[in-house]
C-alpha cells in the first residue's frame, strides 16, 4: 500500500514529489521549508520561528498519513548557516525531547528562496 500526501505546493508537480509518502507502516516527509500558511515565507530572518513552522507542516503531513510526531524515528535539519544550529536544535528539543529520534544537522549552501534559513525532513514508523 502506498499513499502519496500533497501539501499543495506549486513545486510538487514541477519537481515530481510528494510532501510525504506512506508505504505500510513507514512514512517519509520530504525536506520541508518554512512556508507561511497563506503562502510566502514564514518568520523571515528567524531560524527558531522557521524551524517551528517546518515542524507544523511536517506534523500536518504526518497526520494525513495516519501518524504523529511521536512516531518520528529520524530527523534532518538543514541550515544555511551552521552557526544557528542551537536555535534550530532548541525548537527540535522542545518538540522531540521526550521522543528522541536520531538527528542529523548539516549546513547547505542555499535554498531555492534565500529567505529560507532552515528545512527539516523526517521519517516515521507506525507500530
Folded structure, characterized:
The protein has 127 residues and is α+β, with helices and mostly antiparallel strands. It is 28% helix and 29% strand. It has helices spanning 11-15, 47-64, 85-96, and strands at residues 2-5, 20-23, 26-32, 72-79, 102-107, 118-125. The relative contact order is 0.23.
Question: What portion of residues is helical?
Answer: 25-40%
Tell how many strands the DSSP assignment holds: 6
Largest sheet: 6 strands, mixed
Numbering strands along the chain, what is their spatial order in the largest sheet?
A: 1-2-3-6-4-5
Uncertain segments are none
Instruction: Assign the CATH topology.
Output: 60s Ribosomal Protein L30, Chain: A
The CATH homology group name: RutC-like
Query: Strand portion, in percent?
Result: 25-35%
Q: What is the overall silhouette?
A: globular
- CATH class equals Alpha Beta
Could you give the order of the helices and strands? EHEEHEHEE
> How many independent structural domains?
1
Structure annotation, total helices: 3
Mean pLDDT: 95
- Termini separation comes to 16 Å
Which second-level CATH architecture applies? 2-Layer Sandwich
